[in-house]
Amino acid sequence: MRAEVVAVGTELVLGQVVDTNSAWIGEQLAMSGIDCNFQTRVGDNIDRIASALRLALGRNEAVIVCGGLGPTQDDVTREAIASVMNVPLCRDATVLQIVRERFVPRGPTRTMPANNERQADVPEGATVIPQTMGTAPGLICPVGDKVMYALPGVPYEMQDMMRRAVLPDLERRSGQVAVIRSRTLRTWGLSESGLAELVAPRVEALEDGGPGVPTIAFLASGVEGIKLRLTVKAADRDSADKALDAEEAELRILVGDSVFGVDDETMEHVVGGLLLERGWTLGIAESLTGGLLAARVVGVPGASEWFRGAVVAYDAAVKQSVLGVPEGPVVTRDAAVAMAEGARRVLHADVGLATTGVAGPTEQEGRRVGTVVVGLALPGSVSEAVEFRLPGERERVRQLATISAFNLLRRRLSAADGEAQGP
Amino acid sequence: MRAEVVAVGTELVLGQVVDTNSAWIGEQLAMSGIDCNFQTRVGDNIDRIASALRLALGRNEAVIVCGGLGPTQDDVTREAIASVMNVPLCRDATVLQIVRERFVPRGPTRTMPANNERQADVPEGATVIPQTMGTAPGLICPVGDKVMYALPGVPYEMQDMMRRAVLPDLERRSGQVAVIRSRTLRTWGLSESGLAELVAPRVEALEDGGPGVPTIAFLASGVEGIKLRLTVKAADRDSADKALDAEEAELRILVGDSVFGVDDETMEHVVGGLLLERGWTLGIAESLTGGLLAARVVGVPGASEWFRGAVVAYDAAVKQSVLGVPEGPVVTRDAAVAMAEGARRVLHADVGLATTGVAGPTEQEGRRVGTVVVGLALPGSVSEAVEFRLPGERERVRQLATISAFNLLRRRLSAADGEAQGP
After folding, report:
1. Which of A330, A343, B20, B48 is such that its CA lies 20 to 30 A from the CA of A133?
2. Does A295 contact B298 at a Cβ distance shorter than 8 Å?
């Protein structure tokens, strides 16, 4: 089965917005074993959208069109689809009701603009994919034995409808008997070439592959480290998962505890789990990371069970007055330890984690840009500080410092039952 | 003149790599006054590439094909172009010489793989765009009175050839004397449809357009609000900018101070500028936003001149012990005011800004998910708190709360010289 993605929006062809939706959809199609040979972007113009849809329907069994379902006069995807289907648009009473209910006036006098009602227009013969978040519903539009799906351009709405309605419908239509499953091992602290050398024996062992044998891909993911993506095609989900389990075990032997998580597990999820196991709470003191650690922590579901809070001591005087750091230079191991202990004390936490350093653009206290010191105060241990030299400009140094701090805490908590390890 | 971008690469249609090249090329074409109505992505397959090129040549005067010029067996763009031109490929001696010279062996025994020589293959009748950085040259391939340009997929090589050879050639062919300029007005606090209604008079007034008359587009930018993009085509840069100035002034009358910035200006940049004007420093207290305000503030260049720090009081006890919030419920106006005043006092700042509220997933203190209270303590004013009802799930509520807090501070600082305004 072949599907084409048609992304609609003048902002896309003018390069004002990078079309990440098509890439995401292409990936999902590949995972479902559906071929995607072409992707098209077209501006907000009924005739050109219709011509792109006709072409795509001619060379594929399915077309996913994304964008142009909003309330403004620019949004003409509905009209283009109706023209390709050669049917009229009808205003759907159920959708209209939902559009109206979803419109939350932000002031006492605001009523719903009439334009919004256009979002309830549905081509005759199409099925609505109910919206759960935004206001525009998606559409499933049969054309003979082929099908067009219309999805909103807002990424999280599109992804939700794709998972909930489009992929299941495509899989049903394709009668696909093989499944493709994948698993991502997230690593931190190794270079891409270093990681490639470690796992080379497995890449060679799997080389001539075939059904049931996983493939390994490397995805450099910037400040999130490097991911190892295992993908396998098998007759059913169970045997696919068994093959992934076996390969994951082999890789973990080679890569060791540089693997910090699996699939969507972030460093802070892992840290939260380790803290919960011990019943410990966390307090944070941040200088150069300026709130990034705290912001990531509160993104972890249930963080309130183990996260007390943070002090962002951007100004040196705040380090002294709030955290009790002694006067003097602040990009030092002593200052990092004092910050970690200060966070633990002020925030009444069991564990104190602190960052200080030089994000740039210029050096500070004679220390080079990229110098970062992480302080850590754990129950029952002597407090410590570890110094890192991180590459890149200001924002990158900050992001890398954030993950480096979590990673230090992760390694110390993982090692807490055994022997202490180096960072 | 119309040009289409054809991006070649199986990794693009599989979503392993996001196609940023097409967006960049689209933007350059727009700036040169060349229409780009379609963009196509196609996998590494001679027949499908050739079919995409034929289609693109049929509906445009020029086609820019990007990628598939490398040395591996996958790289078949040259062959597809030769097939569309209906000419043979000839190995170009000059290019071959350069390819050989550019090949730097990485070990003592490495010689150039024979595959690399394929990069010297040129369709008969095509002109070479010499490579200055990588190893694959670009191509200018005339087809009757139309033209195809082939560029490498590596972004910096592509951009170099585009600037050096393609854009000048396209401009010469189009005889274009016009420039296209655009400007973005960033708004906050209005729905897309509400904004559309406000600016409808201008959209209508500009409708029949033409050279020198700007067009207006709406770009919903999620938690960053909605952007109004003005674009104008004019004889020269000066008259384009004058037309944009005039239209910006008209729109500001209609939209008022919901416009918070222009082009790349973020809300926190604007707030920083307003604080600097007054010589005031900022201290932040965050509950549900958990560090997001602070993390955005430290991203503003020069923030250390006006930002003192933040207290992330995620746990209620921290609000009391560090910020001096009285015991009792914390999602209230009183708590928000106490947090703002606490931040000002503890962080020795002139201005205190605080957030408290319910991010979800469940209600808290009987308050619904999405309830957010922003507290503000300004020099010489009575401290205040404003309550918001924000839509969406946990992460979205947090992001919206962050911008809402900055926006309240922006409005109060903007109004500080005049009369106080409602939020």
Report:
1. B20
2. no
Interatomic CA distance for residues B375 and B289, integer angstroms = 13
Interface A–B counts its CB contacts (< 8 A) at 256
Q: Which residues of B touch A25 (CB under 8 A)?
A: 15
> Angle at which helices A46-59 and A77-85 pack, to 10 degrees?
50
Per-residue pLDDT tens, chain B, 423 aa: give them: 999 999 999 888 888 788 999 999 998 898 787 889 999 999 999 999 999 999 999 999 999 999 999 877 788 999 999 999 999 999 999 888 887 877 655 445 455 667 778 889 999 999 999 887 667 889 999 999 999 999 998 888 899 999 999 998 998 888 866 777 889 999 998 888 889 889 999 988 988 777 789 988 887 777 788 899 898 888 888 999 999 999 999 999 999 999 999 998 999 999 999 999 999 999 999 999 999 999 999 999 899 999 999 999 999 999 999 999 999 999 999 999 999 999 999 999 999 999 999 998 889 999 999 999 999 999 999 999 999 999 888 888 999 999 999 999 999 999 865 444 444
CA distance B235 to B249: 21
Choosing from B262, B277, B295, the residue where a domain stops is B262
Q: Looking at CA atoms only, how far is residue A154 from chain B in angstroms?
A: 8
Residue B423 placed within a domain: no
- Greatest pairwise CA separation for chain A in angstroms: 77
In angstroms, how far is CA A21 from the centroid of its own chain?
13
Q: Is residue A422 part of a domain?
A: no
- At A222, list the tokens: 């910037």
Reduced to 3 states (helix: H, G, I; strand: E, B; else coil), residue A264 is coil
Within a 13 Å sphere around the CA of A175, how many CA atoms are in the beta-carbon half?
A: 1
Structure token pair of residue A57? 């329907």
State which of A234, A262, A290 marks the end of a domain: A262
CB atoms within 10 A of CB A144: 7
Q: Determine how many CB atoms are found less than 10 A away from the CB of residue A3.
A: 27
CA distances from A81 to A4, A98, A118, A121 (A): 15, 22, 14, 11
Q: What whole-number distance in Å separates Cα of residue A288 and Cα of residue A168? A: 46
Interface test mutation site (partner B, options A223, A314, A320, A323, max chain B beta carbons within 10 A): A314
**Number of domains making up chain B:** 3
Burial label for B199, CB within 10 Å (0-12, 13-18, 19+), is buried
Structural domain boundaries enclosing B96: 3-174
CB B82 within 8 A of CB B101: no
DSSP B362: S
Residue B61 CB-density burial (10 A; 0-12 exposed, 13-18 middle, 19+ buried):
middle
Q: Which residues pair with A355 in a beta bridge?
A: A286, A374
